[in-house]
């Protein structure tokens, strides 16, 4: 046999849980993941982690151990998912020595996670301004020296682990600024004991590192001559417009910003999965009660079908694993999913992105950094008849460059007033020679796995 | 329920490059124009194709005459329009791989020259394109082949005073009085007018039906590959001589012979394929592979260049590969400007001119008999399955 029963794409919490569940039911499973090490966003976010301070470490080691029952295809970037019987994943392995390969499977579970969501503001293109994910990479040891002066800004509870991670790796964090003022009384953390403990842990860490935490504030501009030197922080009104006279500057060389996450839907779109609105209104893969997408023999789990944190990712991953092997899931798992979804919806409601960020922009603030498109040109394109991000791209080049709109897409969608329509037939850059080479070197299931 | 929008002398259906050209030329001729677009400016095929203005790929005949007229008009537009529409007369280079291919290419070029096309035989194509593979049989250089950015051009044309653009509005029908149009009906109101121009591209058959007429326009899918930005390595529009045969073919099967060209912004464009598969948006990996293989064959250095994206569009195909330009033969006041298949950008300028001349009773700049909407007869049959 040259075909897997199930291929899981993504080795984050969702993908690992899906693989574990499916393999435990006797399926021949491949886990295809772009990263060299399993764990995805969540378990990757600590340096040389021995797990000692990680809230979910036990869960992770269990999931990681389950990988020995599957073929873990690490470092495999899927550039296209082709629906069929079986489905075909077109992959690339290696970088300088890139080579193409294919993985075939009867069933697919999409667990491709999400990427950081940025909002533009004057100076956000200066070196030293990072996304939360970029900051993670930094504290993994790329050039961040002890004594770096960092500021964290954006919105959402995940700013806290970013700040404590930066502090733990030696930076002095001069403040965490959350643009929202989540109402503590409706703060749903209390309904989830694990989260409450987590939140308490981060609060303690903030105190320990003496990191100021301000809600209703944002970094509205970054300044520097060729690299980040200082930021302007202002108090915001409810709609995120800066209150006059509240701006002050903070000297820093590192700014980590994050305004939530955008699901990676390329592969779901390739396979023909219908999209719907996620907890915060942005597009996600639509799934039914069994995590099945609208495409035949394709399930989705984790952030692909709604940004809701690691626990929801694990639960939905396991559910997809049951469904893809035709097994009935335990009722307890369904109850946990319902609870985690309510929580995710409450978190999305407590930490929305408000329209006032648009008032931080000046005419020359770049919206698309790859193609250097300033705000004024985006406005011209809208005036000329662009009604969504595709029109903006055609009339102003916004989103046409290297990142293919992954960085600016959310902001562009807000500015033009229509949701993103993710449509990237090529999910990862592929060399023409490899594309031309055709269907070479398919990966076959390990002989021993055939039980 | 149905409220009147502002009236206009002409209502143009579709804000693609053809609708924009028609609107622009009508406004230039002194008419007031309302453009009705159900999506957005360039939201149809114009935003999903490329911007080649080619004479090189056309056999002598009515389409080549239209292309030559259009090319002249595009050059005038590029000079008069306010914004940069990325017009670039970079020239085309058609490469023959075998002596036999070169012989038929040379014969084609001779006929084209007689029709007014500038051509030059090139014994060693690498004098013009140093990175081309060696061992080709020869090439023909077409200095008139040019380039524009169609979406920017459409948006810029539509900014002309006298034109009102209604995006997000769908034409649903006509109001007729005594067999003549008195209003265009949309999903958000009616527009009093005496003339409606169907410039709905690949959807023109549907619009014709809504207007009580019939046209045989069908989709022909094409994929384009876009590479990472590079320093200028490819200077012309380069394609293999097989392309001409593909354009003229009407079969449903897959045909590829991509034009490979560098762009001002850096990426190399490789496109496009031709297939008749309805409006199927599914990405075809075999098609992408073929485009890549043919591009690499022309320019071996592309092997190590990364493709960043691919996109697809649906050309407005007609059974005889000629556009449909002219007055409808039954509905008084209804005009058609559609069905330009893979050449709608190139042919848009002349199409706009001819429609404006027709609507104002002027003498057409060339004989339009070959483009008559009525030429297909009724009932409409698929000429090629
Ligand atoms: C800084 C930070 C702090 C966070 N803190 C918390 C927290 O405290 N509590 C909490 O609950 N959540 C937290 N989260 C969120 C948590 O990380 C996510 O909810 C979780 O990782 C989602 O799991 P997932 O399996 O859906 O996706 P991911 O973990 O993102 O995994 C997706 C995987 O898919 C792979 N992939 C994607 N596309 C392709 C492709 N085309 N080819 C091959 N592989 C592909 C990726 O490489 C990745 O490994 C935090 C996130 C960040 C960034
Ligand atoms: C891959 C590819 C490459 C190509 N390369 C070239 C090239 O290099 N050079 C070239 O000249 N041509 C090229 N073409 C062909 C060219 O793109 C088309 O011929 C041209 O864009 C057609 O323009 P149009 O204005 O007729 O149609 P469109 O741009 O499709 O405009 C029609 C508009 O009508 C609107 N519409 C439809 N129905 C209604 C309704 N009921 N009410 C209101 N509005 C409606 C649609 O939304 C659409 O915006 C290519 C095409 C493809 C697919």
UniProtKB/TrEMBL annotation, chain A:
Pfam families: Fer2_BFD, Pyr_redox_2. The keyword Transferase does not apply. Residues 4-305 form the FAD/NAD(P)-binding domain. InterPro entries: BFD-like_2Fe2S-bd_dom, BFD-like_2Fe2S-bd_dom_sf, FAD/NAD-bd_sf, FAD/NAD-binding_dom, Metab_Enz_Cyan_OpOx_G3PDH, Opine_Oxase_asu/HCN_bsu. Residues 366-412 form the BFD-like [2Fe-2S]-binding domain. The keyword Aminoacyl-tRNA synthetase does not apply. Keywords: Oxidoreductase. Gene3D superfamilies: BFD-like [2Fe-2S]-binding domain (1.10.10.1100), FAD/NAD(P)-binding domain (3.50.50.60). One of its GO terms (molecular function) is oxidoreductase activity. This is NADPH-dependent 2,4-dienoyl-CoA reductase/sulfur reductase-like enzyme. It comes from Phytomonospora endophytica.
From TrEMBL, chain B:
Coiled coil: none annotated. The keyword Oxidoreductase applies. It comes from the Bacteria. SUPFAM superfamilies: FAD-linked reductases, C-terminal domain, FAD/NAD(P)-binding domain. One of its GO terms (molecular function) is oxidoreductase activity. InterPro entries: FAD-dep_OxRdtase, FAD/NAD-bd_sf. Residues 9-357 form the FAD dependent oxidoreductase domain. Pfam families: DAO. One of its GO terms (cellular component) is cytoplasm. The keyword Zinc-finger does not apply. This is Glycine/D-amino acid oxidase-like deaminating enzyme. Keywords: Oxidoreductase.
